[in-house]
Design a protein that fits this description.
It is a single chain. This protein is α/β, with parallel strands linked by helices. It has one domain: Metallo-dependent phosphatases (Purple Acid Phosphatase, chain A, domain 2), CATH 3.60.21. Helix content is about 30%, strand content about 25%. A six-stranded mixed beta sheet has the order 1-6-7-8-10-9, with helices on one face. The chain is globular and about 50 Å long. It starts with 7 loop residues before the first strand and ends with a strand.
């Protein structure tokens, strides 16, 4: 097996001219402005395919939540409509790691491994949520290993929905408290790890989210990483942006 085969690979059909990448919308019922911006984007984007690179939702308590009237069901309906018009791909983030095959099938989504190489217009783009590369955030990486464990997920999903909602609220409260800790330093993507991934993938560009620090970073030897923007349509100024890949490369597009 070659080094490049170590990562999942998706070869785009020749008919795809433009592809949109987005992440970190953190959709939740009590932030309607961002939900409305996302809905408008899904209904108007001209892209041939959409790639959601994690944290579409602020929290996901299980696919069965869509069976009840409410926010999750509305999100599922919008995704189903979007996927009927063009392929929609989904990669798990640190907030919506419990999105499962049932939700994907219900909405017509294709689940992606993290990372995945997208081959488009003769270029190899390495796609990731980005959290796995934040090596200095050791507490989070321990938490990630716990909640990605199959036994932990079975135990959590076996609980009643309202109990899961309460646990999710508690975890969010703890997370917000951690962010507010004096002297808190946000871990960023490790440059050496990013370079190693790119070399293994045979790619020159890594695209990821997670850090909420939209920028482009040169990694040396012609390698780079592009960080996607998070979304907050109620902020001043509002943040709602996608990265559009086309024959001319990558460009950021603000959602209006």
């Amino acid at each position: 097996m070659s080094d490049q085969a170590a990562f999942a690979e998706l070869v785009a059909p020749a008919a795809w001219r433009t592809v949109d990448l987005l992440s970190d919308l953190h959709l939740q019922a009590d932030e309607p402005a961002t939900f409305d911006a996302w809905r408008g984007y899904l209904q108007t984007t001209p892209a041939d395919a959409l790639f959601i690179l994690g944290d579409l939702f602020e929290v996901w308590i299980g696919d069965d939540a869509t069976a009840l009237p409410g926010f999750e069901a509305r999100c599922a309906e919008l995704l189903r409509e979007a996927a009927a018009r063009r392929p929609v791909f989904f990669m798990h983030g640190n907030r919506d790691f419990l999105v499962g095959p049932a939700f994907a099938a219900q909405c017509g989504l294709t689940l992606l491994d993290d990372p995945t190489v997208l081959v488009l217009h003769g270029q190899r783009w390495l796609l990731s949520h980005g959290d796995l590369l934040c090596l200095e955030d050791t507490d989070y990486l321990k938490f990630r290993a716990q909640v990605r464990d199959a036994a932990w997920q079975r135990s959590f999903l076996a609980r009643p929905i309202e109990e899961r909602r309460a646990l999710a609220r508690s975890m969010r409260t703890q997370s917000e408290a951690r962010k507010a800790t004096p002297g808190m330093v946000w871990a960023d993507v490790d440059t050496d790890a990013a370079r190693e991934w790119l070399q293994r993938a045979g790619a020159r560009t890594l695209v990821h989210g997670h850090t909420h620090k939209p920028a482009e970073h040169a990694l040396g030897d012609g390698l780079r990483r592009i960080v996607l923007s998070d979304w907050d349509a109620a902020a001043h100024p509002p943040r709602a942006q996608v990265l559009c890949l086309s024959t001319t490369g990558a460009r950021r597009v603000d959602v209006r």
